[in-house]
Specification:
This is Cysteine desulfurase family protein (TIGR01976 family). The chain is of the alpha/beta class. It has helices spanning about 5-10, 30-45, 55-70, 85-100, 120-130, 145-155, 175-185, 205-210, 230-235, 250-255, 260-275, 285-310, 340-345, 360-365, 385-404; strands at about 20, 80-85, 105-110, 130-135, 160-165, 190-195, 210-215, 225-230, 315, 330-335, 350, 355, 375-380.
């Protein structure tokens, strides 16, 4: 049984009384993560790779954190876990590394539900290599990516498919395994943006069978750092984007130009402890805990969706139920800009957000980009039903004010 009150005690920011519902933009950080970062900075903040004691200690702490993430994502090898400054930069580095594999006339497929982080690098790669970028478009009524539509796009020239497990606007969970199976049968690489999914569900990269999977750990209750899983067999064949002398067997470092922020990578390991219930790290324990989170979040999401569906001036931009979706809910209000809605909720110390959220292709496709985008409420497991009710009261005020 999930105890939201106990979970809330682990996040000091909640003591302020504010309501944080912009979690898809950045979650709150765990006290234990912040403590670990501070401890590292005050005790082992030295360069790794030397023989002296503190250098060895710092390197071990990084290795221990990396191993936790290997277990969290059920990767086969620790060197498949690659830290970086952000998911955006990791995807950019990956696209640079893949360039020698892309030839003129090749085709890359990207969904139009993506954050720009998973569009721009592939558009630049296609332009650089003389390849063609093709878009897998979302179904405008179901707000889901349909596998049949993807099948129609694939040709013998397709080399890569890049798509998100969950859209940061729509909240719908996409069929990752169906895509990777289709791709593997045709020797097509798959790159999955898991940023909007990872806070809500367990990720098993072996079961998903993707070639790369990226997350932003600052959206999974950790510090501002990114993490990428890269399948070892692929990563060892790719162009080195770091110093030329780094050997192939040092796979992560080859994709970390400038190195990484040690204290953040070390501190992030504590979020895995939290997701494991502060027990020994195991994928099954993390999966069970995230399932409990998701069940709680679904109840809150239902409260919000039920309210929005009763409002005649509201258009939900995404699935209208909790089937196969996460608690990221976007909407527009007839007669109000998204900013006007948020200015009212701001007065109640409720943190929601308005705009395009870097998903420009999607909002243009859905016809809401030029109207200021959408209002987005993005929930996490530490949100409560009382907070949802406060949000609904504030939205009532916003809608009432607009009618005057």
């Amino acid at each position: 049984m999930f105890d939201v009150a106990q979970a809330r005690k682990r996040f000091p920011a909640l003591n302020s009384g504010a309501i944080f519902m912009d979690n898809a933009g950045g979650s709150l950080i765990l006290q234990s993560v912040a403590d670990e970062i501070r401890d590292y900075l005050l005790t082992d903040n030295v360069q790794h790779g030397a023989s002296y004691r503190h250098s060895q200690q710092g390197a071990k702490r990084l290795a221990d954190s990396t191993e936790k993430f290997r277990r969290m994502f059920n990767a086969r090898f620790a060197d498949e876990m690659i830290f970086g400054p952000s998911a955006t930069q990791l995807l950019k580095n990956l696209s640079i590394a893949l360039a020698p594999m892309i030839q003129p006339g090749d085709e890359l497929i990207v969904s139009n539900t993506e954050h720009e982080a998973n569009v721009g690098p592939w558009a630049a790669l296609a332009e650089q290599c003389g390849a063609t970028l093709r878009f897998w478009k979302v179904h405008r009524e179901t707000f889901r990516l349909e596998i049949d539509d993807l099948f129609d796009l694939i040709t013998p020239k397709t080399r890569l498919i890049a798509f998100c497990q969950v859209s940061n606007i729509l909240g719908a969970i996409n069929p990752v395994r169906a895509v990777t199976q289709l791709a593997r049968e045709r020797n097509i690489l798959t790159v999955v943006d898991g940023v909007a999914y990872a806070p809500h569900g367990a990720v098993d990269v072996q079961a998903l069978d993707c070639d790369a999977y990226v997350v932003s750990l600052y959206k999974v209750f950790g510090p501002h750092i990114g993490l990428m899983y890269g399948r070892r067999e692929l990563m060892q064949t790719l162009r080195n984007v770091n110093h030329a002398h780094i050997p192939t067997e040092h796979a992560p470092y080859r994709f970390q130009p400038g190195g990484i922020c040690y204290e953040l990578a070390v501190g992030a390991g504590r979020l895995v402890d939290y997701l494991s219930g502060d027990a020994e790290t195991s994928w099954s324990a993390i999966s069970q805990r995230l399932q409990a989170f998701a069940a709680h979040e679904n109840k809150l999401t239902n409260m919000l969706l039920d309210y929005l569906k009763q409002q005649t001036r509201v258009r939900i931009v995404g699935p209208g139920d909790t089937r196969n979706r996460v608690g990221t809910v976007s909407f527009t209000v007839k007669g109000m800009t998204p900013e006007q809605v948020c200015l009212v909720t701001d007065q109640h110390d409720i943190g929601i957000r308005h705009g395009h959220f870097h998903s420009v292709q999607l909002l243009r496709e859905l016809g809401v980009f030029d109207q200021g985008g959408v209002v987005r409420v993005s929930l996490a497991h530490y949100n409560s039903s009382e907070e949802i009710q406060r949000l609904l009261n504030a939205l009532d005020q916003a809608l009432t004010n607009a009618q005057k």
